[in-house]
Design goal:
It is a single chain. The chain is an alpha/beta fold and 249 residues long. The strands form two sheets. Strands 1-6-7-8 form a four-stranded parallel beta sheet, sandwiched between helices. The protein has ten helices and eight strands. A hairpin with a 2-residue loop joins strand 3 and strand 4.
Length: 249
């Protein structure tokens, strides 16, 4: 699960990791849990699915009604899904590029439609019931901040990664995310992003000393231009990705 503040580079790093894993012979599903992010598929270089997972289940109102039902029963989980593998997922809500898949949980589609709590509950339930085999990976791109921790989305994750760009807000969020991950017995590490030699030591000095630094990615004007133009990062090669994958595997 990839977390961090808005603009830190979550979607870019999810896409870079996904493409690297694919090229290494793995099967990957990228799960877009950010209800406000509309461009992850472009960065990833893959078509959008026909439907979001939520729309495939009847839309936000249907999921909200199910959520209200379990609240009234004083229960904590939706339990919409049975245990499933990647092969069980429908092409109605997953698109595939060979062994790279892409799924959107749900998106804000109308003004005044209410909060995104049903998307969070759906993400939690989906990830809790999704199983993977050897050489299969699930990469989860979350919304900005730490709300997904409160929603319990981390429950189905094996490893939490916080992206830290050069900002005080990113450092504060990473330190808090570490404590929340530790509280839930989850492996945790950070990737320093958009870094130069003058910034690296400053960021390290401000992060909790117990936090593992998985890798450091320098600022790239080429990646910034690809994002600005709405192009994918599939042609980008960054050597540190193999080290990051080794750390979290």
């Amino acid at each position: 699960m990839i977390s961090g503040r808005g603009g830190c580079g979550k979607s870019t790093i999810v896409s870079l990791l996904a493409r690297k894993l694919k090229n290494n012979g793995n099967r990957i599903l990228v799960v877009d849990c950010d209800e406000s992010n509309f461009g992850l598929n472009k960065i990833l270089g893959i078509e959008k699915p026909k439907k979001t997972l939520m729309n495939n289940l009847g839309g936000k109102l249907a999921v909200r009604d199910k959520l209200l039902e379990i609240v009234q029963k004083d229960e904590n989980h939706l339990n919409i899904f049975d245990v499933m593998s990647l092969d069980d997922l429908s092409n109605d809500y997953v698109t595939w590029d060979d062994n790279l898949g892409f799924l959107e949980i749900g998106k804000i589609e109308h003004s005044m439609e209410g909060c995104a709590c049903p998307m969070g509950a759906l993400s939690r339930d989906f990830l809790n019931h999704l199983t993977i085999n050897e050489n299969e990976w699930i990469l989860v791109d979350t919304e900005a901040g730490i709300e997904h921790f409160g929603r319990g989305v981390l429950e189905g994750a094996d490893f939490i990664i916080a992206i830290v760009d050069p900002s005080e807000d990113a450092i504060l969020l990473a330190n808090k995310a570490y404590k929340l991950s530790f509280e839930n017995n989850k492996n945790f590490g950070v990737i320093l992003n958009k870094i130069d030699d003058n910034l690296e030591e400053i960021l390290k000095s401000k992060l909790d000393s117990n936090i593992a630094i998985l890798g450091i990615i320098n600022y790239s004007s080429d990646i910034a231009m690809l994002n600005l133009q709405g192009n994918s990062v599939e042609s980008v090669s960054i050597g540190v990705l193999d080290d990051i994958i080794t750390c979290i595997n």
